[in-house]
Protein 1
Amino acid sequence: MLDQKLIRENPTLVEEKLSVRGIKLNLSHLQKLTIELKNKDTELSNLQSESNKISKLIGNYYHNQKDSSIGDINELKSNGNNLKSEISKLEQIKRDLNKEIIDEILKIPNFPSKNAPKGKDESQNIELRKWGNPLKKENIKSHWEIGENLNLFDTKRTSRISKSRFITLIGNGARLERALINFMLDTHQKNGYLELMPPALVNSESLRGSGQLPKFSNESFKCHEDDLWLSPTAEVPLTAFHKDEIIDPKLLPLKYVAFSPCFRREAGSYGKDTKGLIRLHQFNKVEIYWFSNPEHSEEAHQKITSDAENILKELNLPYRVVDICSGDLGFSSSRTFDLEVWLPSCNNYREISSCSNCLDFQARRSLIRTKQNKKTTFLHTLNGSGLAIGRTMAAILENGQQKDGSVKIPDVLVPYFGSSFIKTN
RNA sequence: GGAAAGGUGGCUGAGUGGUCGAAAGCGAACGACUCGAAAUCGUUUAAUAGGGAACUAUUCGUGGGUUCGAAUCCCACCCUUUCCGCCA
């Protein structure tokens, strides 16, 4: 959420900063509303001040044995009454104005960082670095072919259970999923992250706090009987974990790792990635998350990214890091580094992690603050996948495939998985 | 789902109609003592808005109501805890 004062005082700057996202905003109306709100606020505060004075006079009157120097007590009371009705009218106006303003502001995305590359869409993202040797061979099988051959998961039956874009993992497939989750959680814990296991259902306020609402309500599944949604990412409960708190700066940075199932409606992605593990309505993810001192969030962003990269390195999966351009940035993010893993069947890299610095955008929405030189300020939040489990499994199956149809398991995973190869189920 | 108790500052917790934005303690900051630290003593320490200060206003779960005046009384809702019921 952007600062209301900034919109009031320098709407052109806001429009400029957001124009690099490729969106055109005209904030003059919103500016008018915020100025009006401010005026009403001053007016109201004057009336309230007067009303408080009257109340004190009356209070004194009774305390000093009906001191007659104060004047006619009934007249004072009726003055108080008149003020009261004026005040309540103004309050109503203010409330309506405020709601109108907040509703609008919540729909405005974060400013892109000045360091983010300028560009209009993903074609203008910039590759920062590459790691590992991409596997390029003839007769490469896709992970869904491998999965079918080795009976690692099922989609046909699963569509009867739920619908398309869901999956049932079977035998070694399920085991590999578990191994990956445990390996990632353990690795991040060793690197100083505290594990949380948050709920999968979250309320509207939590979704608003991290930026999924109000704009993206059709991207999440909603429970109609309750004010609860299936969380699209652990970023939501992790942000909300410290909602309304003022965190002692000495405790910063707070680093959390959380495993969670993620639920996404994937509206508007018909026909994309219909096979395999890449795009599902439900998938598992290990998320890493920082609450950072505002002064250190840029270093934090580098660190959280390298912590996510570390998982790919340990798994020996080739990947690259991409600096997301201004036009392709997510709603809440000011800068994002995507990690893309090599998928031989696509002969290309595919997103497996997104590491974002949201600055104070989510903190402002969720009212999460800290102290800086005795002043209360919003802290910064950063999130990164560390990693998406399904996509990691796809990468392991494809990059580890052997001539005989088996799959080699990365060394670090062997103690978790229990053997070095998946041969048959 | 039923019953009871409760929701107050960074935290614990007192406060049942007026000088209460709120005792006390903890924590924190600063100072004294010390070579330094601990302990001790002293002072300070809620948030938000009004461009800083002064000052003003608002905020004691949320929303309404009574009153000149509400943390305090009334109503509704939300949440927490305990007991009962149900259940992995």
Protein 2
Amino acid sequence: MGVAASVFVVDDDPSVRKSLTRLIESAGYIVEAFASARDFLKAATAGRPCCLVLDVRMPGMTGLDLQRTLAQAVHRIPIVFVTGQGDIPMTVTAMKAGAVDFLTKPFAARDLLDAVQRAVEKDTRNLGTEARSRSLHARVKTLTPRERQVFALVVTGMLNKQIAAQLNVVEKTVKVHRARVMDKMRAGSFAELVRLADAAGVIVAQT
Amino acid sequence: MGVAASVFVVDDDPSVRKSLTRLIESAGYIVEAFASARDFLKAATAGRPCCLVLDVRMPGMTGLDLQRTLAQAVHRIPIVFVTGQGDIPMTVTAMKAGAVDFLTKPFAARDLLDAVQRAVEKDTRNLGTEARSRSLHARVKTLTPRERQVFALVVTGMLNKQIAAQLNVVEKTVKVHRARVMDKMRAGSFAELVRLADAAGVIVAQT
DNA sequence: GCGGCTATTGGACCTTGGGGTGGTACGAAA
DNA sequence: TTTCGTACCACCCCAAGGTCCAATAGCCGC
């Protein structure tokens, strides 16, 4: 299973919290349990791969409310829902919003642990892509406005002289900017620069 | 809503078929109804954006069985499930397998039509990417084995001379292959070639 | 306000890399 | 026998990119 992963359990029923905690800990995870969505939001931080095991029905903020709230956060924690009384519309809402699984009590211990594993794996992947995108954005931020323009035009495949004409400067100037872009973006080749641009572009589009 | 879209309705209950058909036709879709999954598999072809409105519980092949079967097909038709008696595990299975929505009867006409619209939009996007990937693969197929090798190495950002060394040929030979690759792949620039390679690579990885 | 800093621009010069033309060659497949 | 895939040569052009140098404008801090 690789690195230690955290699993957050949120359930208003103390006995359920206790049994879920015991079960998940037995599989080697670091478990933190919370009695309500608000407690979780106040206290939870992971800094490592994690996931959330969440009761749908709770007094105050429900599981679906919490899911909606977390959907706006930077780091989207994968959620495994667990519920005693659920209905189909609720299930559909949760799944459409990206829940990893939705289990009804009583469920097999195996099923829960499988879902948790999938959720943690998903989070591990997410953390990886997030880290990459952060480092990419950090590099893009170091570009000056002009460099950014040249960057954008260069990766479309335009020639330096065409870019120069478009920006009303001489070719030499474009070459200078271009070289700085390669340097600041830490691209070892033009092919790599194109890939960095596409990756950065996708992120911008998502945001 | 753009182009005409087909909606396939599969339900074993004739009266439900009839009312679903009427409802969906009223929204401007071309509806074809089938009494069973097998009938649908035998007869249905669209050639235009489409989706599937599917009853979960049916004698013989169930809705979930049909979903599994279709998942292996080339063209993944988006599915909207509709059911009288469903349960949560069934819903979760359907949603995890990519269903667009899962409605329980009785449902609001508006909800069904919204789901159908989302499903058709999804299919339109899918058809677009499929068409692009087919044309891309067609172009890759015209490459000779050697050209493919050069293609693969070129888009990593390697220099011609490095590629030449790796393939034990002279640099000029690499240049010739490279030029042919640009030509056959119809890439107007090196940047475009890199993007084509990545797009083709993703498709290969998916397959 | 002055010096230092950054962003931007530009010139002269040279090397290297990518790419095209025209021609040659050879083995395998059709 | 012709076509195709592969490989190579000589020659040339242009694009990319580096070196060294220089100028202008705006901003910051002292």
